[in-house]
């Protein structure tokens, strides 16, 4: 596919509804996943966790410090492998892939939004968004421009991170996370550094991302996030407890 076609495809706003994605395999699944860290004492960070994230579903993950939230995000993001159990991404078992195949699957299928953005300070907004693609650094990938326009930064394409507010940096990070059209978007405290209005805007952006069939998982302490999520799950000592269904935040 050419970059031009890619842009056109992305610009198609028809999108689709959550229900139209229900026949696709889940964006991601954890099946009986246990993660232990060996050491002087073995730590069971995740204990037989089952979790399925549908395409188009927004799942919030809450739980006290040390309950296994980051471990779960790392396993979903193929940054780590389980001690036991199965990880599936868009219907494909990725548990036993080689390091190289995991890297490819991560790049092609998963977007990350980190709490501290992880933007490169010397690159402009559009260069940061273009970075995970095959475009040469410094080139304005057309899809990067259209994604930045979508998150309301069409007039900040050539600003560097120190010329952007916290919320704007977060939007650049979100645009970058979507550049390779992931099936799954993983966010660690996506509203953690933002004021409430900016946080609300980011969450509305996540809701729109879901409408395009991406599964979103956000680790959070923020009740605002759980208000926007379709579902909140709680981790306690590495075990998952299903929470209530939210969703009021989608009624705009
Ligand atoms: P959370 O993100 O909910 O705070 P983590 O997933 O970071 O929790 O950690 C879960 C448990 O696993 C904690 O008891 C933590 O100390 C332990 N843990 C996390 N990473 C490692 C590691 N690399 N080595 C050993 N223990 C770890
Ligand atoms: Mg953590």
Largest sheet: 6 strands, mixed
- Helix count, per DSSP? 8
Bound molecules: adenosine-5'-diphosphate, magnesium ion
SSE string: HEEEHEEHEHHHEHEHEE
User: How far apart lie the N and C ends?
Assistant: 35 Å
Helicity level, as a percent range? 25-40%
What is the number of domains? 1
How confident is the prediction overall: mean pLDDT? 85
What would you report as the Rg, rounded to the nearest angstrom? Answer: 18 Å
Strand line-up in the sheet with most strands: 6-7-8-3-9-10
CATH topology-level name: Rossmann fold
Q: What is the CATH first-level class name?
A: Alpha Beta
Percent of residues in beta strands: 15-25%
- Determine the CATH superfamily: P-loop containing nucleotide triphosphate hydrolases
Strand elements, count: 10
Write the layout of secondary structure elements.
Layout: H1 3-11, E1 28-37, E2 43-53, E3 58-62, H2 69-76, E4 84-89, E5 92-93, H3 99-109, E6 110-113, H4 125-130, H5 142-150, H6 166-177, E7 184-188, H7 196-211, E8 215-219, H8 223-228, E9 231-236, E10 239-245
Parallel strand pairs: 3-8, 3-9, 6-7, 7-8
Antiparallel strand pairs: 1-2, 1-4, 4-5, 9-10
Helix pairs in contact: 5-6
Bound molecules: adenosine-5'-diphosphate and magnesium ion.
Describe the structure concisely.
This protein is of the alpha/beta class and 252 residues long. It is built from eight helices and ten strands.
Describe the structure.
This protein has helices spanning 3-11, 69-76, 99-109, 125-130, 142-150, 166-177, 196-211, 223-228, and strands at residues 28-37, 43-53, 58-62, 84-89, 92-93, 110-113, 184-188, 215-219, 231-236, 239-245. With 252 residues, the protein is an alpha/beta fold. It has one domain: P-loop containing nucleotide triphosphate hydrolases (Rossmann fold, 3-Layer(aba) Sandwich), CATH 3.40.50. It has a six-stranded mixed sheet, sandwiched between helices. The protein has a four-stranded antiparallel sheet with strand order 2-1-4-5, covered by helices on one side. A hairpin with a 2-residue loop joins strand 9 and strand 10. Helix 5 (142-150) packs across helix 6 (166-177). The longest helix has 16 residues, at 196-211. The radius of gyration is 18 Å and the shape is globular. The structure holds adenosine-5'-diphosphate (ADP) and magnesium ion (MG). Adenosine-5'-diphosphate binds next to strand 2 and helix 2.
